Amino acid sequence: MLDFDLAELYGVETKRLKESVRRNKERFPTDFMFVLNTDEWQILRSQIATSRWGGTRYLPFAFTEQGVAMLASVLKSDTAIKINISIVRAFVSLRHSLITSPDNKIELLQSELSELKNYIEEVFIDYNDINEDTRAQLELINQTLAALQADKKLTDKPRKRIGYWTSDEE
């Protein structure tokens, strides 16, 4: 934006705006503000068509986005002060949202994932404990069945038949 437009926006005279910039040169590096050269100014003037202020003795300052924000901090008008406060609040709000929202969501997901992982590990440990207990019980059952079969073989003698007999079956 050009100095005369910003002066109107901030509610100060262009002369005072340029004066404030010159007094605070260190706050306006070339990526914040620069002076248009004659050719650039002529091209712009032909696009603007008419001059509102009847001409200028000095080439205008052109401000980048950062320069417009910095300008709000060096000017003394009420509008500049309000804009500066709004800029600071916007940055604080942005920083706050960056600190709280995404990071907390990521941290929340990480903690939930960790809790889920711990729960699954506990379930598998319990499952393995049950399997070991079940295996032990099955082993005892097999040993008992083996012992019963061994006893049966020792006591295996022909038993008396129950029921009706025929003469040839004795």
Summary of the model, kept short:
The chain is mostly helical. It contains 5 helices and 2 strands, in the order ααβαβαα.
**Rounded mean pLDDT score:** 81
Strand content: under 5%
The biggest beta sheet is recorded as: 2 strands, antiparallel
Number of helices: 5
| Secondary structure: helix percent | 55-70%
Provide the gyration radius in Å: 46 Å
Extended strand count = 2
Shape by Cα distribution: rod-shaped
Order of helices and strands: HHEHEHH
Tell me the distance between the termini. 125 Å
| Order of adjacent strands in the largest pleated sheet | 1-2
Structural class: mainly alpha
Tell me what you see in this structure.
Helix content is 68%, strand content 4%. It has 170 residues and is mainly α. It has a domain at 3-76. Helix 1 (3-10) packs across helix 2 (14-23).
Question: What's the SSE blueprint?
Answer:
Blueprint (H helix, E strand, L loop, with lengths): L2 H8 L3 H10 L9 E3 L2 H11 L12 E3 L1 H10 L3 H77 L16
Antiparallel strand pairs: 1-2
Helix pairs in contact: 1-2, 4-5
Features:
two-stranded antiparallel sheet; 5 helices; single chain; 170 residues; rod-shaped
